[in-house]
Design a protein that fits this description.
The complex is a heterotrimer of chains A (about 325), B (about 290) and C (about 450).
Chain A lengths: L3 H4 L17 H6 L2 H29 L2 E2 L7 E2 L3 H7 L2 H35 L3 H12 L2 H11 L6 H8 L13 H26 L3 H10 L3 H12 L1 H16 L3 H5 L12 H11 L3 H26 L10
Chain B lengths: L1 H32 L3 H4 L14 H6 L5 H6 L9 H31 L6 H10 L5 H14 L6 H9 L3 H13 L2 H9 L4 H12 L1 H17 L2 H6 L8 H5 L13 H29 L7
Chain C lengths: L1 H5 L5 H5 L15 E7 L5 H14 L3 E7 L2 H14 L5 E4 L4 H6 L7 H6 L28 E2 L2 E6 H6 L4 H4 L10 H10 L1 E2 L15 E6 L14 H6 L19 H15 L6 H5 L4 H6 L3 E7 L3 H6 L5 E4 L11 E3 L3 E4 L6 H11 L2 H11 L3 E2 L2 H13 L5 H9 L2 E3 L6 H16 L7 H11 L3
Parallel strand pairs in C: 1-2, 1-3, 7-8, 10-13
Antiparallel strand pairs in C: 3-11, 4-12, 5-8, 5-9, 6-7
Helix pairs in contact in C: 3-16, 16-17, 19-20
Classes of the chains: A mainly alpha (about 325), B mainly alpha (about 290), C alpha/beta (about 450).
């Protein structure tokens, strides 16, 4: 038996759920609709009130000139036309993309490693607790603590660097600011993400590892051939969530660099916020948000398609 | 076997390194919280507390007078710690319970029930993840105000009580991973969906549900801006809002570093306690408990 | 009620008590609570004392103070305006009130001022003008003022062999920086102990900078460069308040900035990378990394409270015009247009602007300078009692070297453009001539 047999386990096509018994004709069309409505209703109400309505309203506002305090005035697509010529918007996209790539790569790799180590090495609650600790601290405070620790002249990190005989590092200078901020956010979220992956790892039946072990597959091979494919639904979740979360990075930047120096950290969300609340240009901010929304939806769609998030190799095993 | 041993050594080395990097900032917070804010700059290089004092903790607990607080670089605001702690527990508990329960219901419908439009509705729900909070805050605030819920617990929890896209998405992904065979067996035995959900699916998903609950609890505990807008009144003010007083109060001002660190550590303590008490049960239950 | 129906069916209806919402606020006849917002916790006690005194004098009015930190203040206020939950009175800011006035969110006070015959001449000259908006209406009564001075570390000064008396007579010019630059150079020390004016000074490895820096100052530069530019004969715009064109492309401004940024190049002042990688000027000064800084009067107490450093004040240097210069700025209270009790709100604002609050209470706290002339003297004395000689701040007022802070529309947009440009100049990624383009952009806002 090779490890491939695990992957070859029978599975249903994507997006479908096995039906135990052949249902009567009417039920076939409606399926479980009555029960489903019951189950989804509370969430649907929350969705409609607190997400859908604000989003629709935002989409409308993107077609207006709106300064928050006086009623919006409809101006058609003017905001979107302006957006294409807005140098700061394109710069913000570039900076954000840079941040997202750095943050996602470091966070995913470290979290995955951490989750596997936690899973394989120890059952210690203390270790698991420690790993989750940074997430207990609010974003803003995490940013402040690191800002203080990384301070060029006073920070403990730079003191150590100098003590080791190197030159002090301007962590929030125009070249390093984005990598630094990505690092700080990785620090805060790695335990959280590792825990998500960890929960996914624990859903994998021990039998598949036993099968792989009997095959004599190396740990490395088992990881790539068995663990990772079985983790797919969870990894899809993790990736989609972290990409969306990274695109919306804001707090850390607001606390440390405020978009500077020279716009080096003016990420898209910070730009939107600045436009809406400091410059009362809410209509334009709404247009930027709509573009961001479409962009994120597109990325998430591609991610979900690529990762075939709707299916699990485990089903029917 | 030697290879495996080396792998374990390397693994532990990495784990210890990660834990050190994780813990050092906490040591720094601890060290700062026992310092005098006014002396921190001059003693920036000290590894131990600068001008050791418990003043920051007294400020957090609302024990120090205005004069004492100001003398150590704190602010003059008052903190009614235990009341705010209670409020935080109320808010985080209600939010977590509601979100996990309603999220699980919806997630089950998306993962296991078969109905027309299922995938479309699910996709729509997930897109809610991408609606920037900057959009939702204002209309939600107006809604809560028109419902007459300003300065009530319900007003604070409502936007996250019935659904968050994260909870639905998260649980749906895990429900997909549950072996369908058990459910099918139950269904064949004549159990309805409602019964299957409560008797089979929920118990089998203890792990993911516990994980979600912990994460939701923490997120809700740390939420700042929304409760600041909706619940500034004393009787519903949560800990994060109250402890906002240790952040910078003036343009270009410095925070009360010692107070902020003490407040942060103190506010995290209840969750750590919760984690310590429930943790083992919760984490141990995260696991493949489905099929034998 | 309408919105309630929209969510009928949801459980929230049961719990929300929709019907009980629309009770009209009671008229001014009965006891009235005035909602008052401010941001500075340091000033909260003194205004609470004012509120108590106000309540004593007017028992029918009670003031309820709510404090939000600066980072939350304006968001929260905006949200409150949109939802109709704004406070009756709140502390306003010069960079914010023009927008609020233009959008009709705050109440003009002219009728009240006329009716109650408020004497505007009791305030320091010019301060009251700051709060007259472009529409010619008054939106606030001044409550305090601030100016700029040099704060220096007395120990480091002594080590450099500079006498405090010298600090009072410094002058600068855009060519060689004058005695001011000499002092800054002397105060700068590199890692090997070499001073900035000594041969062999290593500008790449500086232990203590002669002069600290907070940032590029964007288009305002209040504590960064405004005192140099204005003592070089420069003005922000064609007129103030409400300029129609700005002067950022003026040669006098360019040469000032060129000289000022040259201090970075010479190693006397930290680079932008260092500044943006630091938690703040105050902390760096407290750690002895800066020998002197230029600061606003509102931060004075914070510097004196730092443990481990001893400080003193010196006036900003005399410029090519033969005079010193300082921006003259201040706060006032605004009344929301939606206030249920504008009369009560006005009574409170009037009290805040009166000697009963400013002279008898605020001045004694020695935190800010009250706006009323006679109260300024008391505040000076209160500072003196606390061991701080604040003459370097107040001398600008006495000698008439204050310049009113620029008040303009589109200030946030100006800031956005100028932040980018000035950051680039301070980082040596752009030449001062890039100010031409920036100035054109800024002036375009007023086209």
């Amino acid at each position: 038996m090779t490890s491939d047999t695990v992957r070859a386990a029978p599975r249903t096509p994507p997006g479908t759920v096995p039906e135990p018994t052949p249902p009567p004709p009417l039920r076939r069309r409606l399926g479980d609709l009555p029960v489903a409505v019951l189950f989804v209703l509370p969430a649907a109400i929350g969705f409609a009130l607190f997400y859908l309505w604000p989003a629709v309203r935002g989409a409308y506002l993107s077609l207006t000139r709106y300064n928050v305090l006086t009623p919006p005035r409809f101006i058609g697509l003017e905001n979107y036309e302006k957006l294409f010529g807005d140098r700061l918007f394109w710069n913000a996209l570039k900076v954000t993309a840079e941040y997202v790539v750095l943050n996602i790569v470091s966070q995913t790799v470290i979290s995955m490693l951490l989750a596997v180590l936690l899973y394989r090495l120890t059952k210690s609650m203390v270790v698991r607790g420690i790993v989750l600790l940074p997430y207990l601290v609010a974003n803003v405070v995490v940013a402040l603590v690191w800002f203080w620790m990384l301070d060029f002249q006073l920070g403990v990190v730079n003191n150590v660097i100098e003590w080791l005989g190197f030159d002090r590092v301007a962590f929030f200078g125009s070249d390093l600011a984005i990598p630094t901020i990505a690092g700080i956010n990785t620090w805060r979220h790695m335990g959280y993400t590792a825990l998500l992956i960890f929960a996914g790892l624990q859903m994998i039946p021990p039998s598949v590892y036993e099968a792989a072990a009997i095959d004599g597959a190396s740990e490395w091979r088992t990881f790539w051939r068995v663990t990772l494919p079985l983790l797919r639904p969870v990894m899809a979740l993790v990736m989609v969530l972290s990409v969306i979360g990274s695109f919306q990075v804001f707090d850390t930047i607001a606390v440390t660099t405020s978009g500077g120096p020279i716009n080096a950290t003016r990420v898209i969300y910070f730009y939107i916020y600045d436009l809406a609340f400091n410059r009362f240009n809410f209509g334009y901010a709404a247009a930027l948000s709509s573009v961001l929304f479409v962009l994120l939806a597109g990325i998430a769609y591609v991610q979900l398609r690529l990762s075939r998030a709707g299916e699990s190799d485990l089903r029917g095993s | 076997m030697a290879r495996v041993r080396w792998g374990r050594v390397a693994g532990w080395a990495v784990l210890v390194l990660v834990m050190l990097v994780t813990l050092f900032p906490f040591y720094w917070m601890l060290r700062t919280s026992f310092s005098n804010t006014r002396a921190l700059a001059a003693g920036a290089a000290d590894l131990l507390p600068v001008d050791f004092t418990l003043g920051a903790y007294r400020r957090v607990l609302g024990l120090s007078s205005t004069a004492e607080a100001v003398a150590e670089g704190g602010s003059s605001g008052t903190v009614n710690f235990w009341l705010y702690l209670r409020n935080s527990i109320v808010v985080a508990t209600i939010t977590t319970a509601g979100q996990v329960f309603f999220g699980a219901l919806a997630a089950y419908a998306f993962a296991r029930l078969r109905w027309p439009g299922r995938n479309a509705v699910f996709t729509l729900f997930v897109t809610a993840l991408m609606v920037p909070p900057i959009f939702t805050t204002l209309p939600n605030f107006v809604l809560i105000k028109e419902l007459g819920l300003l300065n009530t617990f319900l007003g604070i929890v409502l936007p996250h009580l019935l659904m968050t896209p994260f909870a639905v998405f998260f649980l749906r992904q895990f429900f997909l991973g549950i072996n369908a065979g058990v459910e099918e067996a139950a269904r064949i035995d004549g159990a309805g969906h409602v019964r299957t959900f409560f008797r089979i699916v929920l118990p089998m998903s203890r792990g993911p549900i516990a994980t979600l609950a912990i994460l939701t609890y923490i997120t809700s505990w740390n939420d700042y801006f929304w409760p600041l807008l909706v619940g500034k009144a004393e009787n519903v003010r949560v800990l994060t809002v109250a402890l906002g007083i240790f952040r910078s109060q003036t343009p270009q001002g410095s925070p009360d570093w010692a107070g902020l660190m003490a407040a942060t550590l103190f506010a995290a303590l209840p969750i750590m306690a919760l984690f310590a008490v429930l943790g083992r049960r919760v984490i141990d239950s995260i696991g493949y408990t489905g099929v034998k | 009620m309408k919105r309630c129906l929209a969510v009928a069916g949801a459980a929230v209806l049961l719990l929300s008590g929709c019907g009980a919402q629309e009770e009209p606020e009671q008229a001014a006849a009965g006891p009235v609570t005035i909602d008052y917002w401010l941001w500075d916790t340091a000033q909260q006690p003194q205004y609470q004392a004012c509120a108590d005194a106000f309540h004593k004098a007017n028992p029918q009015y009670t003031v309820k103070i709510t404090q939000y930190g600066w980072d939350d203040y304006w968001n929260t206020l905006t949200t409150a305006f949109v939802s109709g939950t704004a406070p009756d009175v709140f502390v306003g800011h010069l960079s914010r009130y023009p927008e609020l006035a233009a959008q009709g969110q705050i109440l003009p006070l002219d009728e009240y001022v006329t009716k109650d015959k408020v004497d505007l001449s009791i305030y320091q000259d010019g301060l009251a003008d700051l709060w007259v908006a472009k529409d010619g209406k008054r939106y606030g009564l001044p409550k305090d003022f601030d100016t700029v001075a040099v704060i220096y570390n007395t120990d480091l000064l002594k080590k450099a062999g500079i006498k405090p008396e010298e600090m009072a007579e410094l002058s600068w010019n855009p060519q060689d920086g004058g005695t001011y630059e000499k002092v800054i150079a002397r105060l700068t020390v590199d890692k090997n102990g070499k001073r900035g004016d000594e041969p062999g000074f290593d500008k790449k490895n500086v232990a203590t900078y002669g002069l600290g820096l907070n940032g590029s100052g964007a288009g305002f530069g209040q504590t960064e460069w405004s005192m140099y530019a204005m003592s070089n004969g420069w003005q922000y715009g064609d007129k103030n308040p409400w300029p129609t064109t700005f002067n950022y492309a003026d040669p006098k401004f360019k040469e000032t900035i060129k000289w000022f940024t040259s201090l970075i190049d010479k190693g006397y002042m930290p680079t932008m990378d260092i500044v943006s990688s630091g938690v703040g000027q105050i902390d760096a000064y407290g750690a002895g990394k800066y020998a002197m800084v230029t600061e606003g009067s509102w931060n004075t107490k914070t510097y004196w409270n730092l443990k481990g450093v001893k400080s003193a004040l010196a006036p900003t240097p005399i410029g090519p015009t033969g005079k010193r210069a300082s921006l003259f700025n201040g706060l006032a209270d605004n009344i929301s247009a939606t206030s249920d009790n504008p009369d009560a709100a006005w009574a409170w604002v009037k009290f805040l602007g009166s000697p009963a609050c400013q002279e008898d209470i605020v001045a004694k706290e020695a935190i800010v300078f009250p706006a009323i002339k006679t109260a300024t003297v008391k505040a000076e004395q209160a500072f003196k009692d606390a061991g701080i000689d604040v003459k370097p701040f107040t001398m600008h007022v006495e000698q008439g070297t204050t310049h009113l802070a620029p008040i303009a529309e589109h200030w946030a947009d100006i800031t956005a453009t100028m932040t980018e440009t000035m950051d680039a100049i301070f980082s040596f990624k752009a030449d001062v001539n890039s100010l031409d383009q920036a100035n054109a952009t800024v002036n375009g806002l007023f086209g």
